[in-house]
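Re: the request from the purification team.
They wanted to know what the chain is likely to look like in 3D before they choose a buffer screen. I agreed to run a prediction and write the result into the notebook, where they can find it.
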Amino acid sequence: MPELPEVETVRRGLTPAMEGAVIARAQVNRPDLRWPFPERMADRLTGAKVLQLRRRSKYILADLSTEETLLIHLGMSGRMLVSGDPLGQFVHDHPAAEKHDHVVFDMENGARVTFNDPRRFGAMDLLDTATAEQHPLLVQIGPEPLGNLFTEAHLVERLKPRNTPIKSALLDQKIVAGLGNIYVCEALFRAGIHPARRTRNIASARIATLVPIIREVLRDAIEAGGSSLKDFRQADGELGYFQHSFDVYGREGEPCRSLDCDATIQRVVQSGRSSFYCPSCQR
């Protein structure tokens, strides 16, 4: 499932085609994805101007001139693809419609944005903009890791009293938004912390070092366009490339990339998810 860097990459790719533009025609080709679409979604979107495209955790939010906000979640295989962009940043010709093109936005500027989702685990909803942050999917999400509210003091305060593995704690969206399996593994490697270490047994100073490291990992991934493991594509259809820079994720049995380390990367299952780590570098 896409994590914060992938979702942010898609948001940035959609911005030149959608932000400030009017949805000339919205087409909804099925009644539901993960859950039913809101009533009259196509009618409510047609004619609306996209005032702002933003991201909250793993959700893309499009604030509209109709005082509604379109919430988009990519799910496991959802893709937002842009064609016909007059700014010349995307493929000019609109491709032929595909079987899993479930929602299509034709913009007045000539761009077309297509939401394609073969597995149909994605989702869309329409929220009142004024109360959007109180939506059940958003209200309990913690601070954005690239934002000012994600501080060393916040992370220490939330983690130190707990008695859970540090890997599981960092995946808790109530503590920090948008982190998933891949980037937590990478951040813990850079911090030298074993994924199974209990949070209460980690010194506050070591917990605090995770804040700049998490930001660094996420920024590196965004700069690389995210990680393309199976289905992820950027808005222009291109692959992300950060997976070529993984230090541990998916590298079980391969040599550690740290200098003067002759250990091999190992994998352990935690809460049904694979954690990759170096047994020598991470304690």
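For the purification team: The longest helix spans residues 204-223.
Please add any questions underneath this entry.
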